[in-house]
Write a structure and sequence with these properties.
- The protein is built from two helices and seven strands, in the order E-E-H-H-E-E-E-E-E.
- A hairpin with a 4-residue loop joins strand 3 and strand 4.
- It is of the alpha+beta class.
- 29% of the residues lie in helices and 24% in strands.
- The strands form two sheets. It has a five-stranded antiparallel beta sheet with strand order 6-5-4-3-7, covered by helices on one side. Strands 1-2 form a two-stranded antiparallel sheet.
- The protein has a domain of 51 residues: Roll (SH3 type barrels).
- The chain is rod-shaped, with a radius of gyration of 39 Å.
Length: 141
Amino acid sequence: MANIIILAQADANRTPSDIVTKPITADETTTKTVAPEPNTASKTAQRKGLFGDYGNILVLVLMFAVMYLLLFRAPRKKQQEHKQMLQSLQKNDKVRTIGGIIGTIVDIKDDEITLKVDENTNTKIKVIASAIGKKLSKDES
Protein backbone atom coordinates (compact mmCIF):
# COMPACT_ATOMS: atom_id res chain seq x y z
CA MET A 1 0.00 0.00 0.00
CA ALA A 2 1.28 3.44 -0.90
CA ASN A 3 1.04 6.44 1.37
CA ILE A 4 0.37 9.97 0.21
CA ILE A 5 1.91 12.90 1.98
CA ILE A 6 0.32 16.32 1.65
CA LEU A 7 2.58 19.19 2.52
CA ALA A 8 1.14 22.59 3.26
CA GLN A 9 2.23 25.67 5.07
CA ALA A 10 2.08 24.79 8.73
CA ASP A 11 0.80 27.00 11.46
CA ALA A 12 3.36 28.39 13.84
CA ASN A 13 2.00 26.19 16.64
CA ARG A 14 2.25 22.88 14.72
CA THR A 15 5.26 20.62 14.79
CA PRO A 16 6.55 18.21 12.10
CA SER A 17 5.18 15.29 14.14
CA ASP A 18 1.65 16.49 13.26
CA ILE A 19 2.03 15.30 9.64
CA VAL A 20 -0.51 12.59 8.93
CA THR A 21 -0.17 9.81 6.37
CA LYS A 22 -3.20 8.21 4.72
CA PRO A 23 -3.20 4.91 2.84
CA ILE A 24 -4.41 5.05 -0.79
CA THR A 25 -7.28 2.78 -1.69
CA ALA A 26 -7.66 1.16 -5.07
CA ASP A 27 -10.79 3.11 -6.03
CA GLU A 28 -9.18 6.55 -5.54
CA THR A 29 -7.64 8.27 -8.54
CA THR A 30 -4.19 9.52 -7.78
CA THR A 31 -1.60 11.68 -9.40
CA LYS A 32 1.98 10.80 -8.78
CA THR A 33 4.73 13.40 -9.00
CA VAL A 34 8.26 12.14 -9.17
CA ALA A 35 11.21 14.45 -8.61
CA PRO A 36 14.51 13.51 -10.23
CA GLU A 37 17.47 12.66 -8.05
CA PRO A 38 19.46 15.73 -6.97
CA ASN A 39 22.72 14.66 -8.61
CA THR A 40 21.27 13.98 -12.04
CA ALA A 41 18.97 17.03 -11.95
CA SER A 42 21.81 19.45 -11.39
CA LYS A 43 23.85 17.94 -14.21
CA THR A 44 21.02 18.01 -16.74
CA ALA A 45 19.72 21.44 -15.75
CA GLN A 46 23.14 23.02 -15.93
CA ARG A 47 23.64 24.73 -19.27
CA LYS A 48 26.86 25.72 -20.82
CA GLY A 49 26.75 29.15 -22.40
CA LEU A 50 28.17 30.17 -25.72
CA PHE A 51 31.66 30.49 -24.26
CA GLY A 52 31.50 27.61 -21.78
CA ASP A 53 32.14 28.05 -18.09
CA TYR A 54 33.90 31.41 -18.51
CA GLY A 55 31.18 33.10 -20.57
CA ASN A 56 30.04 35.53 -17.87
CA ILE A 57 33.59 36.60 -17.09
CA LEU A 58 34.31 37.15 -20.78
CA VAL A 59 31.20 39.32 -21.16
CA LEU A 60 32.27 41.47 -18.18
CA VAL A 61 35.77 41.89 -19.60
CA LEU A 62 34.34 42.95 -22.96
CA MET A 63 32.01 45.46 -21.27
CA PHE A 64 34.90 47.04 -19.35
CA ALA A 65 36.98 47.24 -22.54
CA VAL A 66 34.21 49.08 -24.39
CA MET A 67 33.67 51.42 -21.45
CA TYR A 68 37.40 52.20 -21.38
CA LEU A 69 37.43 53.01 -25.07
CA LEU A 70 34.35 55.22 -24.90
CA LEU A 71 34.89 56.98 -21.59
CA PHE A 72 38.64 57.40 -21.27
CA ARG A 73 40.52 56.90 -24.52
CA ALA A 74 38.43 59.03 -26.89
CA PRO A 75 38.49 62.24 -24.78
CA ARG A 76 42.20 61.81 -24.08
CA LYS A 77 42.88 61.48 -27.81
CA LYS A 78 40.94 64.71 -28.50
CA GLN A 79 42.93 66.52 -25.81
CA GLN A 80 46.21 65.38 -27.35
CA GLU A 81 45.12 66.54 -30.83
CA HIS A 82 44.09 69.95 -29.42
CA LYS A 83 47.42 70.28 -27.61
CA GLN A 84 49.34 69.48 -30.81
CA MET A 85 47.27 72.05 -32.72
CA LEU A 86 48.07 74.72 -30.10
CA GLN A 87 51.79 73.93 -30.28
CA SER A 88 51.78 74.27 -34.07
CA LEU A 89 50.24 77.78 -34.06
CA GLN A 90 52.34 80.55 -35.62
CA LYS A 91 51.97 84.22 -36.52
CA ASN A 92 49.49 85.02 -39.32
CA ASP A 93 47.49 81.80 -38.76
CA LYS A 94 43.71 82.25 -38.89
CA VAL A 95 41.99 80.75 -35.86
CA ARG A 96 38.54 80.51 -34.31
CA THR A 97 38.12 80.74 -30.55
CA ILE A 98 35.74 78.57 -28.56
CA GLY A 99 33.54 81.66 -28.26
CA GLY A 100 33.27 81.94 -32.05
CA ILE A 101 35.64 84.90 -32.62
CA ILE A 102 37.67 84.59 -35.82
CA GLY A 103 40.99 86.35 -35.97
CA THR A 104 44.57 86.29 -37.15
CA ILE A 105 47.40 85.60 -34.71
CA VAL A 106 49.61 88.66 -34.23
CA ASP A 107 51.69 87.62 -31.22
CA ILE A 108 52.23 84.50 -29.08
CA LYS A 109 53.63 84.83 -25.55
CA ASP A 110 53.64 81.73 -23.31
CA ASP A 111 49.94 81.05 -22.69
CA GLU A 112 48.66 84.33 -24.14
CA ILE A 113 47.79 84.86 -27.81
CA THR A 114 47.02 88.24 -29.38
CA LEU A 115 44.46 88.10 -32.20
CA LYS A 116 43.71 90.78 -34.77
CA VAL A 117 39.94 90.60 -35.27
CA ASP A 118 39.31 93.64 -37.51
CA GLU A 119 41.56 94.83 -40.32
CA ASN A 120 39.90 98.25 -40.74
CA THR A 121 40.16 99.44 -37.15
CA ASN A 122 43.17 97.29 -36.26
CA THR A 123 41.27 95.80 -33.28
CA LYS A 124 43.25 93.28 -31.25
CA ILE A 125 42.25 91.03 -28.37
CA LYS A 126 44.26 88.82 -26.05
CA VAL A 127 43.07 85.30 -25.26
CA ILE A 128 44.59 82.37 -23.45
CA ALA A 129 45.87 79.56 -25.67
CA SER A 130 43.28 77.06 -24.48
CA ALA A 131 40.54 79.37 -25.81
CA ILE A 132 41.61 78.64 -29.39
CA GLY A 133 39.15 76.08 -30.72
CA LYS A 134 40.26 75.51 -34.27
CA LYS A 135 42.96 76.49 -36.72
CA LEU A 136 41.27 77.64 -39.93
CA SER A 137 42.74 77.01 -43.34
CA LYS A 138 43.21 79.84 -45.82
CA ASP A 139 39.97 78.83 -47.64
CA GLU A 140 37.66 79.22 -44.60
CA SER A 141 38.03 83.01 -44.20
